Structures are given as structure tokens and as C-alpha cells.
């Protein structure tokens, strides 16, 4: 079973976001917690509905996937279930959203965040 226990640091994830390769970031928390605070390009993939939603959000089983949470262990459980479901390149973000923010990287709240962030820049 590939990468079941692999973790990456916030700095490693930031580098991955800029390396030009395909990556999917999913957050294993429920929608309410996700919308309160999450990484910019993360998609909500609640652990409670992972098997129902994963194929639609993650159609290519070999893509790099980083699973995050609020540090409560949901990401590790979700990563294990994704690996069991045939995803071959799954990692968890060490320390979750809090570690990302502590490293000085931005977190966002709400929905339609990429378009809101773009509007703020413009």
C-alpha cells in the first residue's frame, strides 16, 4: 500500500504548489469547519462521505493528493482510506491548517475563495 503514512510539511506543500505538477488538496473535515478556515485551493472531502465523493473530486488515482484537517487526525484516516481505495500518491499535511498558518501561509474562509482572492489582488 503506497504512501499510507507519508506526511509533508507546510514548506514542502508550498513548494509542490509551485512546481508545475498536478496536485489535489483535500480537507477531511465537515463543510462547516472547512468553510471557517482552509487552504486556498483545498476542496472539502469530508471523511464521513469520502467514498461517495472521492471519485468525482479525484478522478486520476495517481495524482499527488495532500489531505489536511485541523490536526485532529481526520487527514490521516482519510489518507488511509484513499490509499485503500487505490490512490497511489497520498500524503497528509503535518499539523494541518494550523501548521500551514503558523508557517506564515494564508488561510481563507467561506466559499468561492479563489475568485475572491483574485478580486482582492486586482
Key structural traits:
single chain; 122 residues; alpha/beta; Oxidized Rhodanese, domain 1; five-stranded parallel sheet; globular
CATH class designation: Alpha Beta
Strand percentage lies at 15-25%
- Taken together, the total number of domains comes to 1
CATH topology: Oxidized Rhodanese, domain 1
Order of helices and strands: EHEHEHEHEHH
Unreliable runs: 114-118
With strands numbered from the N-terminus, the spatial order across the biggest sheet is: 1-5-4-2-3
Radius of gyration using CA atoms only = 13 Å
* Subunit arrangement of the protein: single chain
Q: Biggest sheet, open or closed, and with what strands and sense?
A: 5 strands, parallel
The coarse overall form would be globular
CATH architecture classification name: 3-Layer(aba) Sandwich
Structural class label:
alpha/beta
Q: What is the distance, rounded to the nearest whole angstrom, between the alpha carbons of the first and last residues?
A: 45 Å
Total DSSP helices? 6
Give average pLDDT, whole number. Answer: 89
| Percentage of residues assigned to helices | 40-55%
In short, what is this structure?
With about 120 residues, the protein is of the alpha/beta class. The chain has helices at about 10-15, 30-35, 50-55, 75-85, 95-100, 115-120; strands at about 5-10, 25, 40-45, 65-70, 90-95.
Amino acid at each position: 500500500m503506497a504512501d499510507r503514512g507519508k506526511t509533508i510539511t507546510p514548506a514542502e506543500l508550498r513548494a509542490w504548489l509551485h512546481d508545475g505538477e498536478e496536485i489535489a488538496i483535500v480537507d477531511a473535515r465537515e463543510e462547516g469547519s472547512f468553510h471557517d478556515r482552509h487552504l486556498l485551493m483545498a476542496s472539502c472531502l469530508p471523511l464521513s462521505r469520502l467514498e461517495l465523493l472521492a471519485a468525482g473530486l479525484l478522478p486520476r488515482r495517481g495524482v499527488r493528493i495532500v489531505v489536511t484537517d485541523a490536526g485532529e487526525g481526520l487527514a490521516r484516516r482519510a489518507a488511509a482510506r484513499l490509499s485503500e481505495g487505490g490512490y497511489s500518491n497520498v500524503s497528509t499535511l503535518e499539523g494541518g491548517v494550523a501548521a500551514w498558518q503558523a508557517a506564515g501561509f494564508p488561510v481563507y474562509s467561506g466559499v468561492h475563495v479563489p475568485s475572491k482572492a483574485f478580486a482582492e489582488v486586482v
